[in-house]
Structure formats: C-alpha cells, structure tokens
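Q: Could you fold this chain for me?
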Amino acid sequence: MFENREVAYTSNAQVVDEGLRSYMLKIYNYMTGGLAVTGIISYLIASNPSFLRLFFTPTGYSGFGWLALFAPLIMVFAFGWVVNKGTLAQVQAMFWGFSALMSVSLAPIFLIYTGTSITRVFLITAATFGALSLYGYTTKKDLSGWGSFLMIGLIGLIIATIVNFFMQSTGLYYALSYIGILIFAGLTAYDTQNLKSMYYQSGMEGDIADRIAISGALSLYLDFINMFLYLLRLMGDRR
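A: Sure. Below is the predicted structure, expressed as structure tokens.
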C-alpha cells in the first residue's frame, strides 16, 4: 500500500514538473519572440529614411512618433483587462502589437550607438538576464518581500528620470543608470519566482495558463528591455 502511494506521489510530481516546464518554456518563447519583433522592426525603422521621417523630425519625434511612443504605455495598463476579459487571440494580438510599437522607442539607439556595442551589450544583458531568471526559478529563498521594495524603487527611478530630463545632470544620469540596472535585475529574479509560484498555487492549465504565460512574458520582456537600455547607457559606444 505504501509503495503504491509512493508511486502515485512520484507520478503526480512528474506531471506537475512537466506542466511547470511547459508553462515556463511558453513564457520564455513569447518573451524571445517579442524581443525579436522589437529588434527587427527597430532596425528597419533606423535603417530606412522613409520610416525615420514617419516617426522622427530633425528636432525629435513627429506627431505619429509621439503617438507610437506612448501607445505601449497605454497598452500596459490595458493589458490586465484584456487578459481577464478578452479572448486568447486578443491577448496574443495585444502582446505582439506592444512588441511592435516598442520598436519606435528603441529605434534611436541604432543612430546613437555603434552596431558592435549594441550587439555586445545585448549579449551581456542576455547572459545576465538568464542567470538572474535561473536564480529566481531555482532558489529556495522566498523573494516575495522584494516586490514592494522594488516597486518603490521603480517609482522613485521614474520620478528622478523625469526630474533629470529638465536638470540634465550627467552625474545623476549615470547614478540612475546603475540604480536602474539593480532594480530590473531584482525584478527579473522576483518576476520569475512569482510566475513559478502562480503556477503551483493555481494549478493553471489550458486557456488560463496561456493567458498568464503571455502576461508573464510581458513582465520579463520589460525587465530585459530596461536592463538592456540601462547597460547600454554605461557600456555603449556612441557614434
């Protein structure tokens, strides 16, 4: 009898483990796909004069460029509602649309920094992100306490960035870059563990699992993009 119970427990554990692996793999696949869409479209915009004129003027963003720049921010706030109320196809469309629109924000980096340094910093970001996400996935330490601390830090970072937009302080610029790297490094580990915990707590499957996987992919996508941009500030070679 005890042997049968042990076999049943082992079988259930394997099913959960396979389900978790599939769930996390789906998240990383969506995130990687989103990064690819953003990177490719960003490069196409930066390398095509017609696209550049559509989004940018000699003095900054065009009207259409400003619209495309702020659209992802609006979509982030709307994303939760779509995940809960919309169809799976609408959630997927929102994610891919967000990834495409983010390319307008990233296109200028191809004009400011050399291609070699962008590639180098991207690879450094990928290695750092991978290590931090693996830590969040495997650690036995409860990282839930990091959430409120990191969110407060993120709000402070946003406010300080807006202030420095007017101050134009070089020292503050670099200080915020280091702080930004630390915040999004912490969020990478925290978000990964949180996504894993959500799976165990709710036993998600089917349509719900797909929705949460896309939502999780968006969180990790934003962690990666922001970490990359802050590292590029410090390590990128300007043209």
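A (continued): The first strand starts at residue 56 and ends at 57.
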